[in-house]
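Board notes, transcribed. Complex of a protein with pyridoxal-5'-phosphate.
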Amino acid sequence: MTGRPIPYGHQDITEADIQAVVDALRADFLTQGPRVAAFEAEVAAACRARHAVAVSSGTAALHLAALAVGLGPGDAVLVPANTFVASANCALYAGAEVRLVDIEPGTHNVSLASLDRALTTWLRPERPRVVVPVHFAGHPVDLPGLAALARRHGLTIIEDASHALGAASLEGGQWHPVGCGRWSAATVLSLHPVKHITTGEGGVVLTDDAGIAAAVRSLRHHGIVRDPALLEQAEGRDQPWYYEMQALGFNYRLTALQCALGLSQLSRLPAYLERRRQIARRYAAAFQGLRHVRLPVEAPWARHAYHLFVIEVDFAALGTRRVEVMRRLRGEGIQTAVHYIPIYRHPYYRKRYGLDPADFPETEAYYARALTIPLFPAMTDADVDRVVNAVRRVLGGER
Ligand SMILES: *Cc1c(COP(=O)(O)O)cnc(C)c1O
């Protein structure tokens, strides 16, 4: 008996969510309007940011954040090699170039030592301008350390917090939520169904900088400005119909229907985080005896949001291959995944930059061992038991 398949991640949609979307369908505004503003205010409060701007995807949020900090041709953006392609693509959308950086063992976040080395030996014609740290799997990056390094090298920080809504860092005796703006110019969230909360598709730019918030707000709506105080041309100040396009923007708006869903989902964020952490503790206890398996770490100063639960498996020592392990787990109804194929291994990046995997030893070592097992709040205790039993059976080799 295998039971229903368990994916590696899945949304949780309640009757209250469905009712919230139905109510929004009956309201005056299907896009923009009060639900968008309410959702933005709640996300900003949850992350302790001054401003939140909702957009159509996490990728759109990265794109607009890159434009809003003034990124353009002649600039370079430093991105960890172990991430989803969107973290790097935003630089190219803005006309800048990507420079990949190796990760650190343990958290699998960007290595500050590699970053510092890259910057001190910088040879390329582009000017290093922005760094995009990714809070991989939900473990926060060492932001105070990164901010010190960024200050030294004149870099702007855009956090990719697609995995890390609800994660936090301890500094000065206080917990600071990811997105709070203490260390960076802007932070980006994704609201894709596998992420902490979802709007179907969706993203948010968080910032404490009113100028960045205004730029993102305008760019998500064709680069159009209506606020009389922000107009470039005086002619419109007393004309109620007047608006002007000041930059080449996009239609990256999030609908009121999606924001209604987001608001409803957000009310369960604390419970979601608690459940994710509970499942992670359960896995850690169950797998700690497996000889060829390394478990995720949580630094003493970090609160992990556990978007993903990635184990590192020494497949060679186990006398098997990853594809075989994945096949056997799938046979038991358990879906696994690999996060991520390093960016330099994708044909587009390989051709564009001619990158050599040997330049990223930690990313390569991690990539050879990584296996993401199911973790999402809607998992039942019975689902968790099934994953535990199957993984123990397939990865055997007790210490
Ligand atoms: C999900 C994700 C994105 C992109 O978000 P979308 O909402 O799917 O556009 C960007 N970066 C990382 C690390 C992600 O996991």
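The longest helix spans residues 269-287. DSSP finds 14 helices and 15 strands in the chain.
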